[in-house]
Amino acid sequence: MQPGGQPDMAQILAQAQQMQQQLMAAQVEIAETEVTGQAGGGLVTATVKGSGELVALTIDPKVVDPDDVETLQDLVIGAISDANMQAQQVAESKLGPLAGALGGGGGLPGLPGF
């Protein structure tokens, strides 16, 4: 604070710039992070990047049954959903401290509650 109770604008701007740099670094780190989800006890695995890009899908031949395609489809969807949930948790853990510094509740796109 400056004399007279006025906030030091230069200090506020420096803090905002530092938070912006931290946010950008966290976003890059999240986008490059890969997480793997699974379904059916690991019979189907899906790997996604923090950006949401599906980069790998592995299906154990034991679950490939031409007479039961629906089960395989459910397992694939389950594995991708699990991987996306883990990617969301990574994003929340990396951005959570920054969201708190921003006052919480308002304004990190794509992150409910941040």
TrEMBL record:
GO terms for cellular component: bacterial nucleoid; cytosol. Residues 9-36 form a coiled coil. It comes from the Bacteria. Its main location: cytoplasm. The keyword Kinase does not apply. It is found in: Cytoplasm, Nucleoid. Transmembrane segments: none annotated. This is Nucleoid-associated protein JGU71_14445. It comes from Antrihabitans stalagmiti. The lineage of its organism: Bacteria, Bacillati, Actinomycetota, Actinomycetes, Mycobacteriales.
